Structure formats: C-alpha cells, structure tokens
Amino acid sequence: MNYRAIKGTKDILPSESSRWQFVEQTIRDVFHRFNYKEIRTPIFETTALFARSIGELTDIVGKEMYTFQDRSGDSVTLRPEETASVMRSYIQNNLGEAQPLVKVYYIGPMFRQERPQAGRLRQFHQFGAEATGSPTAETDAEIIALAIEIYRRLGITDYSLKINSVGDEECRPRYKEILRNELLKIAEKLSPESQRRIEQNPMRVLDSKDERDLELTAAMPLIVDYLNEECAAHFEKVKSLLTAYGIPFTVDGRLVRGLDYYTKTAFEITSTELGSQDALAGGGRYDLLVKELGGRSTPSVGFAAGMERLMMILEKKQFQAPQQNPKIFLACADESAREWVLRTTMHLRSNGISAECDLLSRSLKAQMKEADRQNAKYVIVVGSKELANGKVLLKDLSNHTHQEVQLDTLQELIQ
Ligand code: HAM
Fold it and tell me: What pTM does this model have?
C-alpha cells in the first residue's frame, strides 16, 4: 500500500467510535451539569499566539509545534493546546462583556510533534474547560472537581490528584532567585537539560525526569514555603474546599507543569494504570494570560485532559459502551418484495428506528447471516406471500422467539 497514516496519528475505527462517542457524551453531560458551554475554536492560529501564551522557552513551543508558512507567508501553527485559542477568542469576541464569569469547554484534536509512544501521539484529543473572570479559590476548586467528576462518572477511581501553588508575579521571582542560587551550587552535577534551565526556568529543574537530578535537588527550597500572604491564603482555601468536596489530593511542591502561563494553583491528575505517560489531566490558574494577549486583566483557571489516555484505561477495564446496532433487519425473500423492503426501511428510519436491509442483492441465506453479524435485534423476511397476507414473522434474535405480526403494526411493535 502506498499511503499510511502519519507517524503518531491514529484512525479511530468504526469498531472503536461508539466507545468514543459514548465517552464524549458523558463528558459533555458533566460539563453541562456544571454549566459550562461549548466553544469551538479553529484548529490553527497565528504562531505568535501560542509562543506568547505557552512560553518561548517551553518544550512545546521550542520543539513540538507544527508550524508552517501558509501561501501568503504568514506563520501559522496547528494548536498544541486550546487555552491560548480560547483566551484569544474571549478577547476578540468580548465574551466577558455579557457576563462576569465565562465558563466554556472544548473537545477536539491537538497537535504536538513529540516522540510517539504508548499514550503519546502527535495528533491527540483533549477535553478541557476554562473559567474566565474569577479570581476566587472556589473557581479553582470547581475546575478540579469538574475534572474529577468526569473520571468518577466513567468509573475510574485509581487516579491521584497532585496540587501545588506556583505563586504569582510578586512572590515567584523572589523564590526563583533563591532556588537559582541553590541550584548554581550543584550545577555541574545536574543533567545538561537541567543546567540549561537554571537561568531561564529554574523551577522546571525540580520537575526533571532525570533520577539523579531529583536526588540532587531533594532538599531544595519549595515554592509553597515562599508564597506571599495572598497566594498562601488562596492555596489554603483551595485545599479546604477539595477536602469539603471529599476529593483526596496530595500537595506536590515540585509540580511545575510544562506551560509558562500558570499562577497560583497548578494541578495534575495521574494514573498508575498508564505507563510512563501517566498524566491524565493537568491545569491550573493563569491570571496574567488575558492581559499578556492584549485584553483587560482577567483572572482565569482551567484544565485539559487527554482522551487517548482515558480510553487506554477504559479499554483495560474492558469498558463496554452501549452498542449502536440496527434495531431491525428487513430481509427480502424474493424480487417482488424488494421495493417494499427498501421503502419500509426508509420509513422506519424516518420514524426514529435504526433499520437495515440488503443493498448487495444477496441470497436470503446471506441476508440472514448479515442480520446476525450486524447484531440486529429483530429480523423479518418479506416475500410475495407476506405482502399478500399482510403478515410477517417478527423474529427476536436476542432471545430467539418469534411472533406473527401485521405488517402495518410493525413500527409500533419494535418502537
Ligand atoms: P497539558 O498538561 O499540556 O496541559 O495537557 C493536558 C493533557 O493532555 C495531559 O495531561 C495529557 O493527558 C494530554 N496530552 C498532552 N500531550 C499529549 C500527547 N502528545 N499525546 C496524548 N495526550 C497528550 C494543557 O494542554 C493545558 N492547556 C491545560 C490547561 C487548561 N491549563 C489551564 N487550562
């Protein structure tokens, strides 16, 4: 074969799509219960939007974005995440004008050119939510509770929630300076990646994947101990609300996250059911982003979660989505009934019943086999005799019973 899907991309096949649809529907349902409304933003945006929002020095912007020049020479990027797009849309469409707190959600594909492995793709799907216009800890706690509720609804309980506060523009620079000075003392022992980060983003050193880095930095000062009064009080409130909601969590003073826009609360939900890519979801507060993008200063908080990683866990648990099989298969016994079968199939479909018939002029035996393969609940066989009598045998394939029914009552019987 000449063509294959691009490395790191995946087809969601018909055999999997009913599970995807069911899960997406459950997710939408939870979002609606929390009164979040859907937003759909374009799949590509100007490159500068992501570079500015996520941060020039992050892995995403530095190494992973699908960036290209379009035919007019403009630099555009396939979205690696949607928070930046949502904030762009919030500003451009003045969404804050109509209401003080704007709560939106999204589900869709994102693109990052990472090294593909289990749970890590180049085109993957996220669902996420953003609450824009509220500085309160109550909003952070709602966003976290919303993410947790989605996993609960899907029967996933073996996750852990880690939270941290990364401070604000007042206390973070002070802490960073203290940390930088400590890191410089052991700089030459750190991995090259961490050495590079000391100057520009020392907090990421604490989040290093390198075991030796982690050992060396085990006793480093943590930001939670350097928060100013406001950030500390905010963090305490988030924690006490999570406790009040019955949501277990641990404080992880090393949690930094790979995007630069966070202030105060940062969190991650991980699962031991996943391999090395164990993050199911991540998010936090980003009070400076809207202003950074040219809007009025507007505090925000949100999260995003990976669909494929969620699907991996559900698959492991052999989660079954409701099947989408035809309710009835109308088999044709002879040529004289063909038009009736086609017409009635269309009629049933128009009346809300999923119905199927043969389009390949197959023998009756082959049609019956097909009805079975399609897992249709009912099957009828219609020929000239049935049409003349106005009666047909309605077979229930799910329990192998049958009854004689009037053709004109068929629809009511299988409704
Ligand atoms: P993120 O941590 O970069 O945050 O991504 C969120 C989730 O997307 C991850 O926890 C993971 O489940 C999934 N994910 C990320 N990259 C991949 C990949 N290459 N393959 C498969 N799944 C992946 C954000 O994107 C932020 N926008 C979250 C946020 C929203 N913060 C505030 N609002």
Answer: 0.95
